[in-house]
Amino acid sequence: MLADKIQDVFNEPSCAVNAAKTNKERKKGCSRSLKPGAAAGGCAFDGAKITLQPITDVAHLVHGPIACEGNSWENRNTGTSGPTLYRRGFTTDMTELDIIHGGEKKLLAAIKEVILKHDPPAVFVYQTCVPALIGDDVEAVCEHAAKTLGRPVVAINVPGFVGSKSLGAKLAGEALVDHVVGTEEPVHTTSTDVNIIGEYNVVGEFNLVRPLLDKLGIRVAAMISGDGRYHDIARCHRSRVNMIVCSQAIVNVGRKMRERWGIPYFEGSFYGVRDTSDTLREMCRLLVERGGPTDLIPRCEALIAEEEARVERRLIPYRERLRGKRVLLNTGGVKSWSLVSALESAGLTVIGTSVKKTTRLDRDKLRERKGEEFHMWDDLKQRDMWNLLRNREADIMLSGARTQFIALKAKMPWMDVNQEKHLPYAGYDGLLIMVEEIDRLLSSPIWPQVWAPAPWDQPTTDEERRP
Amino acid sequence: MKPRQTNKSAAVDPLKMSRPLGAAMAFLGVDRTLPCFHGAQGCAAFGLVVMVRHFRESIPLQTTALDQIQTILGGYDNLEEALVTMRARARPKLIGVMTTGLTATKGEDMDGNYRLFAERHPEVLADTKIVFVDTPDFNGGFEDGFAQAVKAMIERLVQPTEVRAPKQINILAGSHLTPGDVEEIRDLVEGFGLDPIILPDLSTGMGGRQTDEFPATTLGGTPPERIAAMGSSAVTLAFGEHMRAPAAILELNAGVPYRLFRRLTGLEATDRLIKELMDISGREPPARIKRQREHLVDALLDSHFFLARKRIALALEPDLLYAYARLLRDLGCQVIAAVSPTPSPVLESTGAWTTMVGDLEDLETVASGADLILSNFHAKRTAERLGVPAMTVGLPSFDRLGAAHRVQVGYRGTRNVVFEIGNHFLELAEEHCRGEMREAAHAAA
Questions:
Q1: Average pLDDT, whole number, for chain B?
Q2: From the list A88, A163, A405, which residue is nearest B12 (CB)?
Q3: A107 and B43: CB-CB below 8 Å?
Q4: Which of B122, B251, B280, B395 has the highest CB neighbour count under 10 A?
Q5: CA angle at residue A267 from A264 to A271, to 5 degrees?
Q6: Mutate which of B6, B8, B9, B97 to test chain A, going by most A C-beta atoms within 10 A?
Q7: CA distance, residue A105 to nearest chain B CA (Å)
Q8: Torsional sign, CA A398, A402, A404, A405
C-alpha cells in the first residue's frame, strides 16, 4: 500500500532530520503542510521523475492527463554517454473517456506499444493524481504487463498530491531497491566496484569526476541515476561501496542496500576542492576496508596533492578579482555546505544560504564555521531575494532557473546552479569552470549600462542645454 | 479535408500542452493579475517553468496546493484560503483560477464555489476581481484553455452599455500571437487613429518590463477596468479561430459586432485587416504602412526563387499551424504535413498534403522527405533523427532568445518570416553552389 510505503519512508532512520524528531513528530511525516496561495515547488511525481529519468535506456511512461508530461518533458538537461531513449516523452495522455472507463486498459496497451517500438530493457510507469483518484491499479497493470510481455515493468507510485518533491524522490528510490536492484547477477565484478547514488549527471557533469576515479582504478558499477543503465542498476548489489551524493533525497537507497546486501555507504560531494578530496579519500578508505588493493590510499593521496596544487595555482588570479564580492546562495539547501566552501576558496564571501532542504549535519557545520552573522534562511521568500539584490547586499545570486528572473528583474547578476544549468561544476575542474563563470558574469560590461537612467530620467545640466 | 488521427495508446514526444496552462497565459496578459491553479502544487510548478523559460520573465503563478485528502473531501477550503492569502500578500486587481484534471475529476462545482466565496468574503470581491475557468487537463489543450479564460473574463468583467465610442475597438489576441505580434497589431490599429482595447495584452507585460517594485503580480497587460469598458467599443476584431467564441459572447452580451481574422500572416491576410481598418476609421493608411506593404511585395519577389516547391512539415498549435501553413502555400511551398496537438475547425483548410491531430512521433512519420520542419523547441530532436533542418517557432521556444519579440503578423512581420525561411534556403543554395565550384575546380586540375 502506498500509505504504508510513505509512512515507512518518513521513518528513515538514516535521515539526520528524522533522527532528531520525537516519535509524535516522526509520525506526522516530513511533508510540510503547504499554504494554499503561497506555495511553491514541485510535487511527488516531479521528484520521482527527476530522480529516475536520468536512467538513459529505460522508457519512462507517465500515466495521466497531458499536463504531467506535456508541460514538463525535456525540462532537464541530464547527460548520457550512450542511449537516448530517456529523452523521449511517453504518456497515456488520458482523455475524458479514459477517466470514465478507467485508464488501466489504455496503460497496458501503451506499455505494449512502447516495448514493441523501442525495445527498452525496462519500462518505468509513473502514477499521477488523476488515475490514482479514479482507482487505476498501476501496480497490478505493471505486474501483469511484466508477466505477459517478459520485460521488467516497474510501477513508480507517486501521484503528485501525496506530497513534496523530496518525498517523491524517496519513493522513487524505494521502487528501485524493491523492484530493480538485485534482480540480476553481474557477470563480472572487481574489488573496486562502487555505485554512485543521487548524482544526476546534469550537463554531463560527472565526466569531470570519472577520470579521477579511472586514474585510481575505481570502477563505477552503477550510476543512480545520471547516465545510468537499467541492467547496471539491476546488478549493482555486488558493489563494494555506495557513495550517496544528494543525501536528503535518497539516503534510503543506501541504507536499504546496506541492510540487504551489506554494502557500506558514505555521503560525499563533488563540489569544491575540499569536498572532492574528502570524498575520494573516504571512497578509497572504504574500498580498502572491503578488500580493495591497499596501495589505493597512497595513490589517492598523491592524486589529491597533484590536483589540489594544480587548482590552487589557477585559483590565485581569481582570488584577487573576486575578493569581497558577496554571493547570495539559494540552492534549496542541497549541497549548500559544499558550495559555500567551494566559493570561499575562490575569495568570494557568501552572505547567506537557504537551508530548507539542508541536513542537520550540514547546518551544524555551517553554524560552527560561519558564526552567527551568517544568514541561514529556512524559507527565503522571493520578495526577500529581490530586496537583498536590489539593495546591493549581495553582488550575485546563485540559484535555480525558477528564481533567475527575480535577480534579473532586480538588474543584478545571476548564475544557475541547479538542474537547468548549462555548465558542469563538479570535481576539481568543475570548480575552476564555476569560478570563471562567476567572474565572467560579474565583469560583464552590461551592468553599469542597465543601471543608468534613460535620457528622459536624467537631470539635465545648464551646460547641456546651451546650444 | 478532415484531419487524420492515429489510433494509439501512448502519446510519444507530446506536442500538446495542458489546458489550464493556456488559461494561465491568458491571465498573464492582464495587468496586476495573479493566475492560480486549483490542483496539486506540481500542476503550477511545471507550468511555471514552461512560462519562465519561454518568456525569460519572472512569472507570477500560484496554486491551491491540494493534497489527497483535501481533493476527496472537496477543495473549497483550500480555494478560499488561497484567494484570501493571495489578495493579502500580492494585492492583485484580478485573480484567475483554473481547475485542473484533479479538481475536475473530483467534480468541483466552480459556479457554486464562486457564489459561496462571494457570500463569505464580500471584502475580497470589493477590491479584487475573481474569474474562475473550468479547464480539465484531460479534455482539450493549451489553445482551448486560453480561449476559455478570455471568454470567462469577458463574461465576468465586461459591462454592457448603450453608449458607443466610435474610435474605440476591441482586439482579441489569440495564443498564437507573441507579445511582439500584439505590439505590431496595436501599431497598425493606432496608425488609423483608433483606440484599441487589447485582451489579453501580452505585449506590455511579457515583453521585458523594467520596474522598481517586486513583481508579485503581472505588471503590464490589459487593465481590468479597460476590460470592463469593452462593452462600449464600436467593433471587435478577433485574431485566431479560437477567439471566435469569446468574440461571439462579447457580441451577445454587449452588442459589439465582431470580425474574425483567422490569420494575420501573409500579404492578402494583412490586406484584409487594413481594408477593415480603413472602413472603420474612414481614413487612408499612414505612409509608413503603405511603405511596409511595398517592402513585403518586394520581399516576395526577392525570395520566391528560393521558396517555391520547397517541402515543409509543420507541428504547431492549431491557429499558428494554420497561419504558417497558409503563408507557406502563399509562397509556393508544399506543406507536406501539418500536425496539431488538438482538433480545431482550421485543420480542415490548412492546404497541407496530410493534416493530423497527433504528437511529434507522428510528425516523425509524416515529415520524412521534408526540406524544413517548423515546430517548437521539442521538435529539435525529432528533426535531428530525420536529418531535416528545423526552425523553432511557437511555444515553447526555449532555444531562442527574444521568442517574445518575434513578429510574424502584418506586412512587417510577414516580411520577417519570408526572409527568415528564404535565408535558410538561400544559404543552402549558396553552399551547394560553392560545392559545385570546388568540384569543377578539382576536375579542371
A1: 95
A2: A88
A3: no
A4: B395
A5: 145
A6: B9
A7: 9
A8: negative
Select from A46, A95, A406 the Cβ nearest to the Cβ of B42.
A46
pTM for this entry: 0.94
Q: Report chain B residues whose CB lies below 8 A from the CB of A38.
A: 62, 82, 85-86, 89
Residues near B442 by Cβ (< 8 Å), separated by ≥ 6?
none
List the single residue in A with minimal CA-CA distance to B13: A89
Q: Which helix (H) or strand (E) holds A424?
A: none
The ipTM assigned to this model is 0.93
Specify the pLDDT at position A46. Answer: 94
CA distance linking residue A151 with residue A242, whole number of Å: 27
In sequence order, which residues have a C-beta less than 8 Å from that of residue A18 and are 6 or more positions away? A10, A11, A12, A26, A30
- Nearest-CA distance B244 → chain A (Å): 24
| pLDDT surpasses 60 at A467 | no
Residue reference for cell 506530497? A163
Closest chain A CA to residue B76: A36
Q: Measured between beta carbons, which residues in chain B are less than 8 angstroms from residue A91?
A: 10-11, 14
Beta-carbon contacts of residue A455 (< 8 Å; ≥ 6 apart): none
Tens-digit pLDDT profile for residues B246-299: 999 999 999 999 999 999 999 999 999 999 999 999 999 999 999 999 999 999
DSSP state of A202: B
Contact A71 B18 (CB under 8 A): yes
Q: Quick one: which of B381, B392, B397 has its CA closest to B417?
A: B392
Candidate from A73, A110, A161 with C-beta closest to B14 = A73
Residue found by looking up cell 576542492 in the block: A273
Nearest CA in chain B to A67: B18
Q: Which amino acid is at B356?
A: M
Q: What is the mean pLDDT of residues A36-58?
A: 91
- Angle formed by the axes of helices B142-157 and B19-27, to 10°? 50
C-alpha cell at A19: 533522527
Alpha carbons within 13 angstroms on the beta-carbon side of residue A95 total 10
